[in-house]
Write a structure and sequence with these properties.
The complex is a heterodimer of chains A (378) and B (127).
Chain A (H helix, E strand, L loop, with lengths): L1 H16 L5 E5 L8 H5 L16 E6 L11 E6 L1 H6 L5 H5 L4 H8 L1 E10 L6 E18 L1 H35 L3 H16 L2 H15 L5 E17 L3 E16 L4 E11 L14 E11 L6 E13 L7 E13 L2 E9 L5 E5 L1 H11 L3 E5 L2
Antiparallel strand pairs in A: 1-14, 2-3, 3-4, 4-5, 5-6, 6-7, 7-8, 8-9, 9-10, 10-11, 11-12, 12-13
Helix pairs in contact in A: 6-7, 6-8
Chain B lengths: L2 E9 L6 E9 L3 E4 L2 E2 L2 E2 L11 E2 L1 E8 H4 L3 E9 L7 E9 L10 E4 L6 E11 L1
Parallel strand pairs in B: 1-11
Antiparallel strand pairs in B: 2-7, 2-9, 3-6, 3-8, 4-5, 4-8, 8-11, 9-10
The chains are: A alpha+beta (378), B mainly beta (127).
Chain lengths: 378, 127
């Protein structure tokens, strides 16, 4: 298992390193894949996903089980081109502002790829399913007032810090000009003055103040949010013949409150959704889902608890009836790369599902340790 | 803590055409930017009480002929506030002279959230 994951991460690493860039991004191997690709393959624990600020790149490994004896059979990779390749152009103001729709779209356009292997217990044939999709936030909520106030404090400290640096530098420039120094001498004088300003006791104290405030920042967003997502997946029988497995598009919208309570609704269209678990269909049919999810758990907190229900209307076939799904989902973040989760509920086909990665999490903990940095674009 | 410096020049001509300066603190980090010409602060709308600017700006700093033989200094302090990336970046662009500048982005990693990175750009105007 370690080798498989190392290969995944190293491939990403090599690809990005070849671009000659040095940005480092953090990958949380156990983060819930809040991605359409994973949703279409049915490897996302929740059907109604909470809008959130995407990270530049995220790798998820799910369903590692069989009593710690097999490699994970489901993978999801998500990346956000704007942050991964053009992050150098994104200012904090761009990041924090929710009013500019185009800005929101650019920063949150998330490309997702997912894969899972399914083994037929009767024939021993292994089918591979590949999913691809996108997700974008039209509205993503506002940074909390508490964080806005903290950022204002940082700006004040920074400005006072810079004022002292600027005074030393400007004095050096004027001194160099008055004494007719050549550019090399002048630049040395400016650099020395800047170093002196940075180590000034006032600036050292300001650095401490900045650090203390910044380390307590929480970029939880509040207010109205709306995500659009879509994608498709292919099923490769015996890992060779590819056929369309399903395709769909959906809208998730709702409100997030500062208390950590979210109320979200989803409307979803799916074409030929054979991943319901019912016998494979020979006809092309369609479903429209409508549902809601209530979730408690601050985004930066360790624990979250949710309840969701979705009604599915089926058309284009008489073999399937309209149905519903409900699920209770719980997650506890033990630490970076360590998440315990447990889900229970009824799926559309009427089966009662119990799932989670309680055992898998322990396995990841032993196998991988903590954060895996990946070098990427700036 | 690290310093990243840019020491370069920018060609101006004898015209009265305005020269624009654009500075961007990227990667979603927050920064404070100062601008001085020959040791005197450049004060434009958006400046704070210390004549500094937050995160980014794009404004005229003078005409080609007025800037000739002067020195532009741009000290920047950037604080890492993003948990997902260590990278801090400052991009400096000058336009309005015979050709636009093509300075490489300045970049440095900040190990921890709350760490600051000091940047300093020193640019001579000449023809």
């Amino acid at each position: 298992m370690s080798a498989a994951i190392a290969q995944t991460a190293d491939s990403a690493n090599n690809t990005l390193l070849n671009r000659g860039d040095t940005t480092q991004w953090k990958i949380n191997l156990l983060e819930e894949p809040n991605s359409p690709g994973a949703s279409l393959l049915g490897i996302s624990p929740s059907a109604v996903q909470r809008p959130s600020d995407p990270t530049a790149i995220m790798v998820s490994l799910l369903n590692s089980t069989d009593n710690l004896t097999t490699i994970p059979n489901s993978y999801a990779v998500d990346f956000v081109p704007q942050w991964l390749f053009w992050g150098k152009n994104v200012t904090y103001s761009d990041f924090a502002n929710d009013n500019n729709i185009w800005n929101n779209i650019k920063q949150t356009f998330d490309v997702s790829l997912a894969m899972r292997n399914l083994k037929d217990v009767n024939s021993n044939v292994v089918n591979t399913q590949l999913g691809a999709g996108f997700k974008v936030s039209i509205k993503r909520g506002s940074i909390s007032k508490k964080t806005q106030a903290a950022m204002a404090s940082i700006h004040t400290y920074q400005s006072n810090y810079l004022a002292l640096r600027k005074r030393y530098i400007n004095d050096a420039v004027k001194q160099a000009k008055a004494s007719g120094m050549n550019p090399d001498q002048r630049n040395q004088l400016i650099a020395a003055a800047d170093q002196k300003a940075q180590s000034d006791a006032k600036n050292l104290a300001l650095q401490d103040s900045i650090r203390k405030v910044a380390q307590g920042l929480d970029f939880t967003r509040e207010g109205f949010m709306m995500d659009l997502a879509g994608g498709f997946s292919y099923n490769f029988v015996s890992q060779t013949n590819g056929t369309l497995y399903n395709a769909g598009a959906w809208v998730t919208a709702g409100e997030q409150w500062a208390s950590g309570i979210d109320l979200l609704g989803v409307v979803r269209y799916l074409y030929d959704p054979q991943n319901t678990g019912v016998a494979l269909s020979t006809t092309n049919y369609h479903t429209i889902d409508a549902g809601a999810r209530i979730l408690y758990g601050p985004q930066t907190g360790k624990f979250s608890f949710g309840l969701e229900g979705i009604y599915r209307k089926v058309s284009g076939t008489t073999a399937l009836n309209s149905s519903y799904r409900y699920a209770l989902t719980t997650d506890y973040k033990v630490g970076t790369n360590q998440v315990l989760s447990f889900n229970i509920g009824r799926d559309f086909n009427g089966t009662i599902n119990k799932g989670g990665n309680l055992i898998a999490a322990l396995n990841f903990l032993i196998g991988f340790g903590s954060t895996r940095p990946v070098s990427g674009g700036k | 803590m690290a310093n990243t410096n840019l020491i370069d020049s920018y060609q101006v001509d004898g015209s009265s055409n305005p020269v624009r300066l654009k500075v961007t603190v990227g990667n979603g980090q927050t920064g404070c930017i100062g601008v001085s010409i020959d040791g005197n602060d450049v004060i434009k709308p958006g400046a704070d009480a210390n004549n500094n600017y937050t995160d980014s700006f794009d404004f005229e700093i003078g005409s080609n002929q007025d800037l000739n033989s002067s020195l532009l200094t741009i000290p920047v302090v950037v604080t890492r506030v993003q948990t997902d990336t260590q990278t801090t970046t400052v991009i400096v662009e000058l336009t309005g002279g015979p050709t636009p500048s093509n300075y490489p982005p300045l970049t440095e990693n900040a190990t921890n959230v709350g760490d600051i990175i000091n940047y300093l750009c020193t640019i001579d105007f000449g023809n």
